[in-house]
Design brief:
Blueprint: H1 2-5, E1 10-18, H2 22-32, E2 36-38, H3 52-74, H4 91-135, H5 141-155, E3 165-173, H6 177-187, E4 193-196, E5 201-204, E6 211-222, H7 224-236, E7 240-242, H8 248-304, E8 308-309, E9 315-323, H9 327-341, E10 348-351, H10 369-378, H11 388-404, H12 407-422, H13 424-427, H14 435-442, H15 444-461, H16 482-487, H17 517-550, H18 556-585, H19 603-612, H20 631-677, H21 681-693, H22 698-722, H23 725-750, H24 755-796, H25 813-816, H26 828-841
Antiparallel strand pairs: 1-9, 1-10, 2-9, 3-6, 3-7, 4-6, 5-6, 8-9
Helix pairs in contact: 2-8, 2-9, 3-4, 3-8, 4-8, 6-7, 10-11, 11-15, 11-23, 11-24, 12-15, 17-18, 17-23, 18-20, 18-22, 20-21, 20-22, 23-24
Length: 842
């Protein structure tokens, strides 16, 4: 667990690779996944580097594979996942695969174009047949005399207007038909007879393959000018027009011909589609293997571009970060590959000095990965800084369970996470396209612990689907006879009377029957939330002490850590102590009246009077105002010492740092002069950076520390109050569960004792279960999760966590082939280089 507590120790190394075996070495390093290369030629553009051609060739093959994947998705052709670990492509294999993929691309494009042409012809034939069948009646003799005269009379408004009737038939999209009709009426000024079919025709778009819905239309106007206008509107709306034969026999003959051609077209389309699917299935069997090999190859050449080539062009020189634990393995691997290659210049790696801050690397496994991801989402820890992810394994599910605490709901989370863990071998390397599922599956162990802790707090709260169970003898005794119980709806149980032993574990189930249950739960959960919050914030400050000792920032201990700890303990831990004292010192069985519940003081009033330096008044006559006689003096001392810590936090670090910076700046200036005389450019740059670092004036240091001091003082109050969300969400979850139980299950099913009620309870139970899972488990669980995340990111981690580091991202094939990076965009400089080459050829 050492690597989870702090980042792994990192070494800055220089790596030398023999030119001929560089590809093999980088392949092995990619499999190991423990080296992060730095760019040795940052001033050279990506398109002008040594291995740009190979990278662009891989990018082109990747583009072809993504195109083929899209084609397979159109026809629902599955991609067979490879179980092997294929190696990257050498230059010879790359040329062979390029030819294969180019051939498959041309074949699929040709088949797609043929299919599109066939589908376009099929669409036109079916639409033509549809139009003839729907509007051929207009040319029949039996309707010519009556229908045509009525059409002519409806469109002929001026007695002097003459001309032949122009008939236009066709199809238009259903979603455009209304606008299409309105435009026709406007351009013809209503001098048109328009009719559309009531039955739509469904067809497939030849370009997109999506289903389209068309409607047939018939437009009759008088005169060639109006006819030309209508045809222009048809072209604008994308409507297809078809001519309809006037002779009935000719129409029947055309319908027969169209039917025959449509049937023939279907057969040709089916055969073409079969050939296309057969080709795509063949591609699908090898697609994953090809993609893995291409991505590995592109990654190898991309990282080889980060090296610089020496003058003899026989060696690649690079710089990298390597964890100290992996350095011996890398050296051994380089020595082994050099021995096999039998080269005169062996590949080797050596440590080097640098002034750059190392990256942060926490080794995680499948259990701790989810918790570490929660921390990394907030910020990457500084190198060797304490990692909150280690403590989050316990604190995160614990705080979640306080808000979510219900045993049965915790069981649901536990079973769901257990199921995901059981099937993790099938999905860990093959993530779904569903992002929600990926999130749940990635945090399966987080959900597992959240479920387990929720089961524990559910037992503490004695909540099982908002119902309480009697696990042992209740604290309360019944002192009423049967008649009194039967005649009174509410009875008072006085804790001052004879009672049993306290309920040992959890909340006494009798409270579930009390009318003042919410008052009791509010009091205990609210105060416990404050106590838990103060303890966690104190723990966070203690972790800052560990960081100060580790980084040898000893001046921060008396000037920052101790004042902050005193301020937090003397004010808010004292508030928690008063709560505990009130619980133990006041009770109904106390013989002294001053220690009875009637004289119990209000802790919030204590705290307010303490901050305002006011005298607290007793809650009732005959009661003491304070818990113990010297409490006012103790509180005044605590407040005075706490306020005294503020100027120490404000002025202490700036005064100390200004003196230290002045001395170190003078030393750095002397070092600059020495390195300049030696002509050491790298050392001089480092020394100048030290001069700049230690040139901060006292005003800047004071302003920076003032911001941190004000933030800490104000946030201590707000953060303590923020932990009240533990109480609020716990109460909301319990009451929502109780309401769902009574309003759905009890009211609609359990109260019906008839035969029909026994059948209805099955349906109502299903509805109640659906609401419980969707609302109480999913929605309430997500709400509690987000609030827990906030308590860790803001209230807890702000006490010790800087998060100013940068993440160690090694050259790793496993990460490269993750589903999240499966569809990375191709390199932009490859497209630019391809365009320039085409321009030069032209």
């Amino acid at each position: 667990m050492g690597s989870m507590l702090r980042s792994d120790l990192m070494s800055f190394c220089e790596i030398y690779l023999q030119y001929g075996s560089a590809f093999e070495v980088m392949t092995q390093l990619g499999e190991m996944g423990c080296i992060q290369l730095l760019d040795m030629t940052p001033n050279i553009k990506p398109g002008a580097r040594n291995y740009t051609t190979e990278v662009c060739r891989c990018a082109e093959m990747e583009r072809i594979l993504l195109f083929l994947e899209d084609e397979m998705m159109k026809d629902n052709i599955p991609i067979v996942d490879t179980e092997a670990n294929p190696k990257p492509l050498h230059l010879k294999d790359m040329t062979e695969l390029e030819n294969i993929l180019s051939k498959w691309e041309n074949d699929i494009i040709g088949m797609s174009e043929t299919q599109s042409v066939l589908l376009q012809n099929y669409l036109e034939l079916t639409e033509m047949k549809y139009v003839i069948e729907q509007f051929g009646w207009i040319f029949d003799d039996e309707v010519n005399s009556n229908e045509k005269s009525s059409i002519r009379s409806s469109i002929k408004r001026d007695a002097g207007f003459t001309g032949y009737l122009q008939i236009i038939t066709g199809v238009v999209r259903r979603n455009k038909s209304f606008a299409f009709e309105q435009i026709l009426w406007r351009i013809t000024l209503g001098n048109i007879y328009y009719k559309h079919t009531t039955q739509d025709i469904l067809s497939q778009d030849p370009q997109t393959g999506k289903e389209i819905r068309n409607v047939g239309f018939l437009a009759i106007c008088q005169g060639k000018q109006l006819s030309e206008r209508i045809e222009k509107v048809c072209r604008g709306f994308g409507a297809n027009t078809y001519s309809c034969p006037e002779d009935s026999a000719e129409r029947m003959d055309m319908i027969d011909q169209l039917t025959s051609r449509i049937n023939d077209m279907k057969q040709v389309m089916n055969k073409t589609q079969f050939r296309r699917c057969k080709a795509l299935r063949t591609i699908g069997e090898k697609w994953d293997t090809w993609m893995v090999r291409i991505k590995k190859t592109k990654a190898v050449y991309h990282n080889m571009n980060l090296f610089s080539l020496d003058i003899t062009k026989e060696c690649l020189i690079g710089q990298c970060w390597i964890p100290d634990n992996d350095l011996p393995h890398v050296s051994k691997k380089l020595k082994k590959i050099s021995g096999k290659a039998r080269t005169n210049v062996p590949s080797f790696i050596s440590k080097s000095e640098t002034f750059i801050e190392p990256p942060t690397f926490h080794r995680t496994n499948k259990f701790t990965k989810g918790f570490q991801a929660l921390i990394n989402a907030y910020g990457i820890s500084k190198y060797r800084e304490l990692n909150p992810g280690l403590y989050t394994i316990i604190t995160f599910p614990f705080l979640f369970a306080i808000m979510f605490g219900d045993f049965c709901h915790g069981v649901i989370l536990f079973l769901f996470s257990t199921w995901m863990i059981k099937i993790e071998d099938k999905h860990v390397n093959r993530k779904s396209r569903n992002e929600i599922w990926n999130i749940f599956f990635g945090g399966r162990y987080v959900i597992l612990l959240m479920g387990q802790f929720s089961m524990f707090t559910g037992i503490i709260y004695n909540s099982y689907f908002c119902k309480s169970l009697y696990g042992m003898t209740s604290y309360w005794k019944n002192h009423y006879n049967q008649s009194t119980i039967e005649t009174n709806m509410f009875l008072t149980l006085d804790p001052a009377e004879d009672t049993n032993h306290p309920y040992v574990f959890g909340v006494d189930p009798t409270w579930a029957l009390a009318s003042n249950q919410i008052i009791f739960l509010n009091s205990i959960k609210m105060k416990m939330s404050i106590i838990v919050g103060v303890i966690q914030m104190i723990f966070g400050l203690l972790l800052s002490l560990v960081n100060n000792i580790y980084f040898k920032e000893y001046y921060l201990i008396p000037l920052q850590f101790l004042p902050r700890m005193i301020f937090l303990v003397f004010l808010f831990l004292w508030l928690s102590v008063l709560m505990v004292m009130k619980w133990f010192m006041y009770g109904p069985k106390q013989a002294d009246y001053k220690r009875s519940p009637h004289c119990a003081p209000l802790i919030l009033i204590f705290f307010i009077d303490m901050l305002l330096l006011s005298t607290t008044k007793p809650v009732d006559d005959g009661c003491d105002a304070y818990i113990f006689p010297s409490q006012p003096l103790v509180q005044n001392i605590l407040l005075f010492v706490s306020l005294l810590c503020v100027p120490i936090m404000l002025f202490g670090p700036p005064i100390y740092l200004s003196r230290v910076y002045k001395k170190k700046r003078e030393e750095a200036l002397v070092l600059v002069q020495e390195l300049r005389s030696r002509n050491d450019k790298i050392g001089e740059d480092y020394a100048n950076a030290r001069v700049k670092k230690y040139s901060a004036n006292f005003g800047g240091l004071l302003l920076n520390e003032a911001i941190h001091t004000i933030e800490f003082v104000l946030s201590t109050i707000s953060h303590t109050a923020s932990y009240l969300r533990l109480w609020a969400l716990s109460l909301a979850h319990e009451k929502l569960s109780d309401m769902l139980w009574h309003m759905v299950l009890v009211k609609l099913a359990l109260r019906d004792t008839s035969l029909f009620g026994s059948l209805r309870i099955v349906v109502i139970f299903a509805v109640w279960a659906a609401f419980s899972i969707s609302i109480l488990v999913v929605m309430e669980g997500l709400s509690a999760f987000l609030h827990t995340l906030r308590l860790h990111w803001v209230e807890f981690m702000s006490k010790f966590y800087l998060g100013g580091g940068w993440l160690f991202r090694p050259f790793n094939f496993e990460e490269l082939l993750s589903p999240e990076r499966r569809h990375d965009k191709p390199e932009g400089y490859c497209k630019k280089a391809q365009t320039n080459n085409m321009a030069e050829e032209a």
